[in-house]
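Hi support team,

I've been running sequence recovery on a batch of backbones for a student project. Most finish fine, but this one hangs at about 90% for roughly twenty minutes before it completes. I'm not sure whether the input is malformed or the queue is just slow. I've pasted the structure tokens below so you can try to reproduce it. Let me know if you need the job ID as well.

Thanks,
M.K.
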């Protein structure tokens, strides 16, 4: 208590500013707080709304109540955004998501107006934020009746409702939804975390995926758990397929993967579409992707040429395979913390046949292959397993028997995840084993997401980049890969 008293009475420094009556104190406040680290747009917006509440031609009680409601709304927002001890949610990211939802009917017009007004300013990627402060919530609209107290009340009510759903999206385990709904919200979060082709806005340095805004809208509109679960399953499948198919395979025709999220948001807002209708539209787009033979050929050619390691779908795919093996084992014991795993990045993907294979074991096992073939084997789908980052560095380029049994340090596959334990079924690890496991993972891909690779086993082997291992080399596919890429 003495320490606190001393801080309050002796260690506070106050700056006093005397402002004449012809200067706007609210604008002064904004200017002062834009020195050094600027206020967030959400903080600036609160100040703007409180300022506007003083200008309305209404009773002092109404003004006081409006200011109280604004303060309560922002208090709730920041309480919720900061509720997660290790998962603080950026305030401007929430504001941007809400912006796209609240102004969905005129969002395209807003973009068009800013582009015409100032191309350089538009290119600074703050147009949507500044629309709130420079065009919508401005004092000049009040005398003419274009902005009234109900507009502010409606806006803050919407913020109050959306922040609760935003918290559910980012912390589904605290949502009260069924276990399966929670699991699929988590899956969608994992899929939305890496960079993918899709409807994305870069706003104020934050990358905002409109698919997350769509999830926000659907959670807002849907109260039936079964309908919501069906939507989430379709959404997860679509997002995975889009992340699995490299951008080059669309041949610059991104319209085939465009859900037209803005149009869906408008229809949901007007009541012209329900959540079940959103699911149907997602299913149609996904079905078109899966059935497109040209895209499938491009996918086979792409992975044949480039391999799988740097592809963003891989972490999610390996995690889902781990969950599949856990389900097969009929146990609820999780051996891979996905939240930690996705937070670490690609360094938590283990090359079973290592990138730096300098041990005699690996040299002997792969001595009959060219450098290019060795690279294809290293980067083929069957050569990867999800492990913790620490374990990945310790396994490094150890011979497979040591990786498998962990005799020297007890960190071998025998003591790891379900996918690692499955690897202990192999005595050695060479080209044959990489191909065998790769085909098993291709079968899982088809079973889990319904995506069929080619029309034959040769197509699947080509997809894995291992056609040189078979007697019947699929030269047609390889030549096509060179031609397309």
């Amino acid at each position: 208590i003495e320490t606190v008293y001393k801080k309050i009475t002796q260690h506070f420094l106050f700056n006093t500013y005397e402002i004449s009556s012809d200067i706007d104190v609210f604008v002064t406040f904004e200017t002062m707080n834009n020195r050094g680290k600027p206020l967030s747009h959400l903080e600036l917006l609160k100040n703007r709304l409180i300022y506007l509440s003083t200008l309305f031609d209404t009773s002092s009680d109404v003004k006081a109540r409006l200011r109280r409601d604004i303060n309560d709304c922002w208090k709730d927002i920041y309480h919720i955004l900061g509720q997660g001890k290790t998962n603080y949610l950026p305030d401007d990211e929430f504001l941007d998501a809400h912006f796209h939802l609240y102004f969905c009917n005129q969002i395209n017009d807003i973009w068009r107006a800013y582009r015409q007004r100032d191309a350089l300013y538009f290119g600074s990627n703050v147009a949507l934020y500044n629309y709130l402060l420079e065009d919508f919530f401005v004092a000049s609209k009040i005398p003419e009746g274009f902005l009234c107290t109900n507009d502010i009340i409606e806006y803050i009510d919407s913020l109050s409702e959306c922040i609760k759903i935003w918290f559910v999206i980012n912390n589904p385990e605290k949502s009260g939804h069924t276990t399966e709904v929670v699991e699929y919200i988590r899956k969608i979060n994992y899929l939305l975390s890496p960079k993918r082709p899709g409807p994305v806005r870069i706003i104020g340095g934050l990358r905002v995926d409109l698919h997350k805004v769509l999830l926000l809208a659907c959670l807002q509109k849907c109260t039936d758990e079964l309908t919501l679960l069906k939507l989430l399953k379709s959404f997860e499948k679509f997002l995975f397929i889009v992340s699995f198919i490299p951008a080059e395979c669309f041949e610059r025709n991104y319209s085939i993967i465009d859900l037209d999220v803005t149009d869906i948001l408008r229809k949901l807002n007007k009541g012209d579409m329900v959540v079940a209708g959103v699911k149907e539209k997602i299913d149609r787009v996904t079905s078109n992707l899966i059935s497109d033979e040209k895209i499938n050929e491009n996918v086979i050619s792409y992975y044949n040429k480039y391999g799988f390691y740097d592809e963003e779908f891989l972490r999610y795919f390996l995690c889902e395979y781990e969950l599949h093996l856990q389900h097969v084992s009929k146990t609820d014991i999780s051996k891979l913390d996905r939240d930690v795993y996705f937070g670490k990045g690609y360094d938590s993907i283990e090359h079973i046949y290592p990138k730096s294979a300098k041990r005699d074991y690996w040299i002997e096992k792969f001595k009959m292959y060219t450098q290019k073939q060795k690279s294809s084997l290293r980067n083929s789908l069957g050569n990867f397993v999800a492990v913790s980052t620490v374990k990945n560095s310790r396994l490094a380029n150890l011979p497979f028997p040591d990786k498998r049994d962990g005799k020297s340090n007890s960190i071998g596959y025998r003591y790891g995840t379900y996918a690692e334990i499955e690897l202990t079924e192999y005595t050695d690890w060479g080209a044959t084993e990489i191909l065998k496991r790769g085909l098993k993972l291709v079968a899982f891909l088809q079973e889990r997401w319904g995506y069929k690779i080619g029309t034959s086993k040769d197509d699947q082997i080509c997809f894995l980049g291992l056609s040189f291992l078979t007697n019947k080399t699929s030269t047609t596919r390889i030549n096509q890969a060179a031609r397309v890429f």
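--
Follow-up from support: It reproduced on our side and the slowdown came from queue contention, not your input. The chain has a mean pLDDT of 85. No action needed from you.
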